Fold this sequence. Notes:
By secondary structure, this protein is α/β, with parallel strands linked by helices. It has 3 domains: about 5-75, no CATH class; about 90-315, Alpha-Beta Complex (Spore Coat Polysaccharide Biosynthesis Protein SpsA, Chain A); about 320-405. It has helices at about 50-75, 100-110, 135-140, 155-165, 185-195, 215-220, 260-265, 285-295, 315-340, 345-365, 375-405; strands at about 5-10, 15-20, 25-30, 35-45, 50, 90-95, 120-130, 145-150, 170-175, 180, 200-210, 230-235, 255-260, 300-310. α9 (about 315-340) runs antiparallel to α10 (about 345-365) and α9 packs across α11 (about 375-405).
Amino acid sequence: MPYIITEIEVTQPLPTLSLSERDIGIALVVRRKDKPIGFVMQALPANSLLTPEDIAQLISKELGTKLLQESIKEELIPPCSQLPLPSLTIAICTKDRPENVTRCLQSLLQLKMPLKQDILGREILVVDNAPSDDRTQTLVASMPGVRYVREPKPGLDFARNRALKEAKGEILAFLDDDVTVDRKWLEGLLEAWRENPDAVAFTGLVLPYELETEAQILFEQRGGFRRGFEKIRYYGPTLKGNSLYPCGAGIFGAGCNMAFRREIVLKLGGFDEALDTGATLPGGGDLDIFYRVIRAGYPLIYEPQYLVYHQHRREYAKLSHQYWTWGLGFMAFVVKSFQNDPPQRVMLCRLIGWWLKDMLRQLKSSIRGRHVLPPTMLLAELWGGIVGLFGEYPRSLRRVEQIRRQFS
Protein backbone atom coordinates (compact mmCIF):
# COMPACT_ATOMS: atom_id res chain seq x y z
CA MET A 1 0.00 0.00 0.00
CA PRO A 2 2.67 2.52 -0.92
CA TYR A 3 2.63 6.17 -1.86
CA ILE A 4 4.77 6.95 -4.89
CA ILE A 5 7.41 9.58 -4.04
CA THR A 6 8.22 11.72 -7.08
CA GLU A 7 10.26 14.87 -7.63
CA ILE A 8 8.58 17.69 -9.55
CA GLU A 9 10.60 20.56 -11.03
CA VAL A 10 8.12 23.39 -11.56
CA THR A 11 10.30 25.21 -14.10
CA GLN A 12 10.08 22.16 -16.41
CA PRO A 13 7.07 20.61 -18.20
CA LEU A 14 5.07 18.59 -15.69
CA PRO A 15 4.91 14.81 -16.21
CA THR A 16 2.01 12.37 -16.38
CA LEU A 17 1.98 10.02 -13.38
CA SER A 18 0.28 6.64 -13.21
CA LEU A 19 -0.35 4.56 -10.09
CA SER A 20 -0.21 0.78 -10.01
CA GLU A 21 -2.87 -1.44 -8.51
CA ARG A 22 -0.85 -1.46 -5.25
CA ASP A 23 -0.44 2.30 -4.93
CA ILE A 24 -2.77 4.36 -2.75
CA GLY A 25 -1.37 7.85 -3.23
CA ILE A 26 1.44 10.13 -4.31
CA ALA A 27 3.96 12.31 -2.48
CA LEU A 28 5.49 15.13 -4.50
CA VAL A 29 8.84 16.66 -3.60
CA VAL A 30 8.39 20.03 -5.30
CA ARG A 31 11.48 21.93 -6.46
CA ARG A 32 12.06 25.23 -8.18
CA LYS A 33 15.41 25.48 -9.97
CA ASP A 34 16.44 22.40 -7.99
CA LYS A 35 15.66 23.98 -4.60
CA PRO A 36 13.06 22.15 -2.48
CA ILE A 37 10.05 24.40 -1.92
CA GLY A 38 7.25 22.03 -0.88
CA PHE A 39 5.98 18.54 -0.13
CA VAL A 40 2.50 17.43 -1.18
CA MET A 41 0.81 14.17 -0.14
CA GLN A 42 -2.44 13.08 -1.78
CA ALA A 43 -4.39 9.84 -1.32
CA LEU A 44 -5.66 8.44 -4.64
CA PRO A 45 -7.43 5.32 -5.91
CA ALA A 46 -5.27 2.50 -7.25
CA ASN A 47 -4.50 2.70 -10.99
CA SER A 48 -5.10 6.47 -11.03
CA LEU A 49 -3.68 8.52 -13.89
CA LEU A 50 -2.59 12.09 -13.17
CA THR A 51 -2.22 14.45 -16.10
CA PRO A 52 0.09 17.47 -15.99
CA GLU A 53 -3.02 19.56 -15.35
CA ASP A 54 -3.93 17.40 -12.33
CA ILE A 55 -0.43 17.77 -10.90
CA ALA A 56 -0.49 21.52 -11.51
CA GLN A 57 -3.75 21.80 -9.57
CA LEU A 58 -2.36 19.80 -6.64
CA ILE A 59 0.76 21.93 -6.45
CA SER A 60 -1.11 25.18 -6.92
CA LYS A 61 -3.59 24.30 -4.17
CA GLU A 62 -0.81 23.61 -1.66
CA LEU A 63 1.96 25.93 -2.82
CA GLY A 64 0.51 28.66 -5.01
CA THR A 65 1.62 31.51 -2.74
CA LYS A 66 4.95 29.80 -2.11
CA LEU A 67 5.74 29.72 -5.84
CA LEU A 68 5.12 33.45 -6.09
CA GLN A 69 7.27 34.15 -3.02
CA GLU A 70 10.17 32.14 -4.43
CA SER A 71 10.03 34.06 -7.69
CA ILE A 72 10.07 37.41 -5.87
CA LYS A 73 12.94 36.31 -3.59
CA GLU A 74 15.06 35.40 -6.58
CA GLU A 75 14.68 38.92 -7.94
CA LEU A 76 15.16 40.84 -4.68
CA ILE A 77 17.67 38.92 -2.55
CA PRO A 78 21.30 39.37 -3.61
CA PRO A 79 23.53 36.29 -3.80
CA CYS A 80 25.37 35.42 -0.60
CA SER A 81 29.11 35.86 -0.17
CA GLN A 82 31.59 33.35 -1.54
CA LEU A 83 33.05 32.66 1.90
CA PRO A 84 34.48 29.11 1.88
CA LEU A 85 33.13 26.49 4.27
CA PRO A 86 35.72 25.60 6.92
CA SER A 87 37.03 22.06 7.06
CA LEU A 88 34.15 19.60 7.46
CA THR A 89 33.80 16.24 9.19
CA ILE A 90 30.68 14.21 8.40
CA ALA A 91 29.99 11.73 11.22
CA ILE A 92 27.64 8.75 11.07
CA CYS A 93 26.96 7.26 14.51
CA THR A 94 25.67 3.70 14.23
CA LYS A 95 25.15 0.41 16.03
CA ASP A 96 24.79 -2.98 14.30
CA ARG A 97 23.17 -1.65 11.12
CA PRO A 98 25.76 -2.05 8.34
CA GLU A 99 23.10 -2.15 5.63
CA ASN A 100 21.91 1.31 6.66
CA VAL A 101 25.47 2.60 6.86
CA THR A 102 26.15 1.32 3.34
CA ARG A 103 23.21 3.23 1.91
CA CYS A 104 24.07 6.42 3.79
CA LEU A 105 27.73 6.28 2.75
CA GLN A 106 26.86 5.61 -0.88
CA SER A 107 24.68 8.73 -0.96
CA LEU A 108 27.55 10.77 0.51
CA LEU A 109 30.15 9.39 -1.87
CA GLN A 110 27.91 10.19 -4.85
CA LEU A 111 27.71 13.89 -3.93
CA LYS A 112 29.08 16.38 -6.39
CA MET A 113 31.88 18.02 -4.45
CA PRO A 114 32.12 21.82 -4.34
CA LEU A 115 35.17 23.49 -5.81
CA LYS A 116 38.30 23.51 -3.65
CA GLN A 117 37.88 27.20 -2.96
CA ASP A 118 34.38 26.49 -1.55
CA ILE A 119 35.38 24.01 1.16
CA LEU A 120 38.70 23.76 2.97
CA GLY A 121 38.69 20.00 3.52
CA ARG A 122 36.30 17.12 4.09
CA GLU A 123 36.35 13.75 5.82
CA ILE A 124 33.76 11.06 6.56
CA LEU A 125 33.84 9.38 9.97
CA VAL A 126 31.84 6.32 11.06
CA VAL A 127 31.51 5.92 14.84
CA ASP A 128 30.55 2.33 15.70
CA ASN A 129 28.80 2.40 19.06
CA ALA A 130 29.31 -0.73 21.21
CA PRO A 131 28.94 -3.08 18.22
CA SER A 132 28.16 -6.77 18.70
CA ASP A 133 30.29 -7.79 15.69
CA ASP A 134 32.77 -6.46 13.12
CA ARG A 135 30.42 -6.08 10.14
CA THR A 136 30.46 -2.27 10.13
CA GLN A 137 34.24 -2.17 10.54
CA THR A 138 34.63 -4.55 7.60
CA LEU A 139 32.26 -2.45 5.51
CA VAL A 140 34.10 0.81 6.20
CA ALA A 141 37.45 -0.82 5.41
CA SER A 142 36.13 -1.49 1.89
CA MET A 143 35.24 2.16 1.28
CA PRO A 144 38.17 4.45 0.47
CA GLY A 145 38.17 7.83 2.16
CA VAL A 146 36.00 6.75 5.11
CA ARG A 147 37.49 6.58 8.63
CA TYR A 148 36.29 4.12 11.29
CA VAL A 149 36.25 4.61 15.07
CA ARG A 150 34.80 2.26 17.68
CA GLU A 151 33.20 3.75 20.81
CA PRO A 152 32.76 0.97 23.40
CA LYS A 153 30.47 2.85 25.82
CA PRO A 154 26.85 2.20 24.73
CA GLY A 155 24.72 5.26 24.04
CA LEU A 156 24.26 7.60 21.09
CA ASP A 157 25.64 10.63 22.91
CA PHE A 158 28.77 8.70 23.88
CA ALA A 159 29.21 8.13 20.14
CA ARG A 160 28.52 11.78 19.32
CA ASN A 161 31.05 12.94 21.89
CA ARG A 162 33.60 10.51 20.47
CA ALA A 163 32.99 12.11 17.07
CA LEU A 164 33.62 15.55 18.62
CA LYS A 165 36.99 14.33 19.90
CA GLU A 166 38.02 12.45 16.75
CA ALA A 167 36.85 14.93 14.09
CA LYS A 168 39.45 16.97 12.24
CA GLY A 169 36.97 19.45 10.77
CA GLU A 170 35.98 22.81 12.20
CA ILE A 171 32.39 22.02 11.24
CA LEU A 172 31.01 18.64 12.37
CA ALA A 173 27.89 17.37 10.58
CA PHE A 174 25.98 14.47 12.15
CA LEU A 175 23.89 12.03 10.13
CA ASP A 176 21.85 9.11 11.44
CA ASP A 177 22.55 5.85 9.66
CA ASP A 178 18.94 5.59 8.43
CA VAL A 179 19.14 8.67 6.19
CA THR A 180 20.43 9.33 2.70
CA VAL A 181 21.56 12.80 1.68
CA ASP A 182 19.99 14.82 -1.11
CA ARG A 183 22.19 15.83 -4.04
CA LYS A 184 22.04 19.46 -2.76
CA TRP A 185 22.82 18.55 0.87
CA LEU A 186 26.38 19.82 0.93
CA GLU A 187 25.50 22.90 -1.12
CA GLY A 188 22.71 23.62 1.37
CA LEU A 189 25.11 23.52 4.30
CA LEU A 190 27.57 25.69 2.38
CA GLU A 191 24.86 28.27 1.64
CA ALA A 192 23.69 28.31 5.27
CA TRP A 193 27.27 28.93 6.38
CA ARG A 194 27.89 31.70 3.86
CA GLU A 195 24.70 33.50 4.85
CA ASN A 196 25.40 33.04 8.59
CA PRO A 197 29.15 32.79 9.26
CA ASP A 198 28.51 33.56 12.94
CA ALA A 199 26.24 30.53 13.40
CA VAL A 200 27.16 27.63 15.68
CA ALA A 201 24.44 25.11 14.77
CA PHE A 202 22.71 24.14 11.53
CA THR A 203 19.71 21.90 10.92
CA GLY A 204 17.96 20.91 7.72
CA LEU A 205 14.86 19.54 6.07
CA VAL A 206 14.00 15.85 6.53
CA LEU A 207 11.69 14.13 4.03
CA PRO A 208 10.66 10.45 3.79
CA TYR A 209 12.96 7.99 2.04
CA GLU A 210 9.98 5.76 1.33
CA LEU A 211 6.26 5.55 2.08
CA GLU A 212 5.72 1.82 1.72
CA THR A 213 3.74 0.90 4.84
CA GLU A 214 0.80 2.22 6.82
CA ALA A 215 3.10 3.17 9.70
CA GLN A 216 5.36 5.26 7.46
CA ILE A 217 2.38 6.99 5.86
CA LEU A 218 0.78 7.78 9.23
CA PHE A 219 4.03 9.21 10.55
CA GLU A 220 4.42 11.52 7.56
CA GLN A 221 0.76 12.55 7.57
CA ARG A 222 1.24 13.75 11.15
CA GLY A 223 4.13 15.90 9.94
CA GLY A 224 7.11 13.57 10.13
CA PHE A 225 10.38 15.38 10.77
CA ARG A 226 9.50 18.32 8.54
CA ARG A 227 10.13 21.84 9.83
CA GLY A 228 9.08 23.69 6.69
CA PHE A 229 10.67 25.09 3.56
CA GLU A 230 11.65 28.55 4.79
CA LYS A 231 15.13 29.52 5.96
CA ILE A 232 15.04 30.42 9.66
CA ARG A 233 17.67 32.10 11.82
CA TYR A 234 17.10 31.42 15.52
CA TYR A 235 18.99 33.87 17.68
CA GLY A 236 18.40 35.71 20.93
CA PRO A 237 16.16 35.19 23.95
CA THR A 238 12.78 35.61 22.24
CA LEU A 239 11.01 34.56 19.04
CA LYS A 240 8.04 36.49 17.70
CA GLY A 241 4.86 34.44 17.90
CA ASN A 242 6.35 31.71 20.11
CA SER A 243 5.89 32.30 23.83
CA LEU A 244 7.67 29.03 24.75
CA TYR A 245 10.89 29.73 22.84
CA PRO A 246 13.54 28.42 23.26
CA CYS A 247 12.25 25.73 25.64
CA GLY A 248 10.18 24.04 22.94
CA ALA A 249 13.42 22.91 21.29
CA GLY A 250 11.66 20.58 18.85
CA ILE A 251 11.11 23.54 16.52
CA PHE A 252 14.81 23.77 15.67
CA GLY A 253 15.18 20.59 13.65
CA ALA A 254 15.97 16.89 13.96
CA GLY A 255 19.08 15.18 15.26
CA CYS A 256 19.31 12.93 12.20
CA ASN A 257 20.57 15.95 10.19
CA MET A 258 22.48 18.59 12.15
CA ALA A 259 25.87 20.31 12.11
CA PHE A 260 27.88 22.37 14.59
CA ARG A 261 31.02 24.40 15.07
CA ARG A 262 32.98 21.68 16.80
CA GLU A 263 35.04 23.96 19.06
CA ILE A 264 31.99 25.76 20.47
CA VAL A 265 30.10 22.55 21.23
CA LEU A 266 33.16 21.24 23.07
CA LYS A 267 33.20 24.47 25.11
CA LEU A 268 29.53 23.89 25.94
CA GLY A 269 30.45 20.48 27.34
CA GLY A 270 29.49 18.33 24.38
CA PHE A 271 26.38 16.16 24.29
CA ASP A 272 24.70 15.08 27.52
CA GLU A 273 25.49 11.36 27.76
CA ALA A 274 22.55 10.81 30.13
CA LEU A 275 20.25 11.47 27.16
CA ASP A 276 20.06 9.17 24.12
CA THR A 277 21.35 6.30 26.26
CA GLY A 278 19.73 3.45 24.33
CA ALA A 279 16.64 1.44 25.23
CA THR A 280 16.09 3.04 28.65
CA LEU A 281 16.16 6.66 27.42
CA PRO A 282 16.53 6.78 23.62
CA GLY A 283 16.07 10.48 22.99
CA GLY A 284 16.42 14.09 24.06
CA GLY A 285 20.07 14.68 23.18
CA ASP A 286 19.37 16.74 20.09
CA LEU A 287 16.77 18.89 21.87
CA ASP A 288 19.24 19.51 24.67
CA ILE A 289 22.14 20.62 22.49
CA PHE A 290 19.92 22.90 20.36
CA TYR A 291 18.55 24.50 23.53
CA ARG A 292 22.01 24.99 25.05
CA VAL A 293 23.36 26.57 21.86
CA ILE A 294 20.55 29.15 21.89
CA ARG A 295 20.78 29.76 25.64
CA ALA A 296 24.53 30.35 25.30
CA GLY A 297 23.77 33.19 22.89
CA TYR A 298 24.72 31.58 19.57
CA PRO A 299 22.69 31.50 16.33
CA LEU A 300 21.10 28.29 15.06
CA ILE A 301 20.15 28.11 11.36
CA TYR A 302 17.45 26.01 9.71
CA GLU A 303 18.18 25.55 5.99
CA PRO A 304 15.73 23.52 3.83
CA GLN A 305 18.31 22.87 1.10
CA TYR A 306 20.33 20.99 3.71
CA LEU A 307 18.07 18.02 2.99
CA VAL A 308 18.09 14.33 3.87
CA TYR A 309 15.65 11.46 3.33
CA HIS A 310 14.83 9.41 6.41
CA GLN A 311 13.65 5.81 6.46
CA HIS A 312 10.72 5.93 8.87
CA ARG A 313 9.73 2.96 11.04
CA ARG A 314 8.05 0.41 8.79
CA GLU A 315 6.21 -1.54 11.49
CA TYR A 316 3.22 -0.30 13.45
CA ALA A 317 4.63 -1.48 16.79
CA LYS A 318 7.99 0.22 16.17
CA LEU A 319 6.28 3.50 15.29
CA SER A 320 4.24 3.33 18.50
CA HIS A 321 7.47 2.70 20.43
CA GLN A 322 9.08 5.69 18.69
CA TYR A 323 6.29 7.96 19.88
CA TRP A 324 6.81 6.62 23.41
CA THR A 325 10.52 7.48 23.18
CA TRP A 326 9.66 10.96 21.88
CA GLY A 327 7.54 11.66 24.94
CA LEU A 328 10.17 10.16 27.24
CA GLY A 329 13.11 12.01 25.70
CA PHE A 330 11.27 15.31 25.52
CA MET A 331 10.32 15.30 29.18
CA ALA A 332 13.76 14.09 30.26
CA PHE A 333 15.19 17.11 28.45
CA VAL A 334 12.67 19.39 30.19
CA VAL A 335 13.52 17.96 33.63
CA LYS A 336 17.26 18.33 32.97
CA SER A 337 16.76 21.94 31.81
CA PHE A 338 14.60 22.70 34.87
CA GLN A 339 17.42 21.49 37.13
CA ASN A 340 20.25 23.25 35.29
CA ASP A 341 18.66 26.49 34.05
CA PRO A 342 16.77 28.18 36.94
CA PRO A 343 15.94 31.40 35.01
CA GLN A 344 13.82 29.35 32.61
CA ARG A 345 11.87 27.36 35.19
CA VAL A 346 8.63 29.31 34.85
CA MET A 347 8.66 28.89 31.08
CA LEU A 348 9.55 25.20 31.38
CA CYS A 349 6.56 24.68 33.68
CA ARG A 350 4.38 26.44 31.12
CA LEU A 351 5.83 24.15 28.45
CA ILE A 352 4.88 21.06 30.46
CA GLY A 353 1.34 22.35 30.87
CA TRP A 354 1.05 23.20 27.18
CA TRP A 355 2.39 19.78 26.12
CA LEU A 356 0.02 17.82 28.37
CA LYS A 357 -2.95 19.90 27.24
CA ASP A 358 -2.00 19.49 23.58
CA MET A 359 -1.54 15.72 23.91
CA LEU A 360 -4.94 15.38 25.58
CA ARG A 361 -6.49 17.51 22.83
CA GLN A 362 -4.97 15.24 20.17
CA LEU A 363 -6.09 12.13 22.05
CA LYS A 364 -9.66 13.42 22.27
CA SER A 365 -9.61 14.18 18.55
CA SER A 366 -8.29 10.68 17.79
CA ILE A 367 -10.99 8.99 19.86
CA ARG A 368 -13.55 10.89 17.77
CA GLY A 369 -11.87 9.70 14.56
CA ARG A 370 -10.55 13.15 13.61
CA HIS A 371 -6.80 12.53 13.97
CA VAL A 372 -4.44 10.71 11.60
CA LEU A 373 -3.00 8.65 14.48
CA PRO A 374 -4.93 6.02 16.46
CA PRO A 375 -5.41 6.62 20.19
CA THR A 376 -2.90 3.89 21.10
CA MET A 377 0.00 5.81 19.53
CA LEU A 378 -0.93 9.08 21.19
CA LEU A 379 -1.30 7.28 24.51
CA ALA A 380 2.19 5.84 24.01
CA GLU A 381 3.64 9.32 23.53
CA LEU A 382 1.68 10.68 26.50
CA TRP A 383 2.78 7.83 28.75
CA GLY A 384 6.40 8.28 27.68
CA GLY A 385 6.15 11.93 28.67
CA ILE A 386 4.75 11.07 32.08
CA VAL A 387 7.55 8.56 32.74
CA GLY A 388 10.09 11.15 31.60
CA LEU A 389 8.59 13.77 33.88
CA PHE A 390 8.82 11.62 37.00
CA GLY A 391 12.45 10.75 37.49
CA GLU A 392 13.82 9.19 34.29
CA TYR A 393 16.61 11.74 33.87
CA PRO A 394 18.02 11.28 37.42
CA ARG A 395 17.84 7.49 36.92
CA SER A 396 19.70 7.88 33.63
CA LEU A 397 22.44 9.94 35.30
CA ARG A 398 23.06 7.06 37.69
CA ARG A 399 23.13 4.51 34.85
CA VAL A 400 25.60 6.61 32.87
CA GLU A 401 27.93 6.88 35.86
CA GLN A 402 27.92 3.08 36.08
CA ILE A 403 28.80 2.85 32.38
CA ARG A 404 31.67 5.31 32.80
CA ARG A 405 33.06 3.34 35.76
CA GLN A 406 32.73 0.09 33.82
CA PHE A 407 34.82 1.43 30.93
CA SER A 408 37.26 3.58 32.93
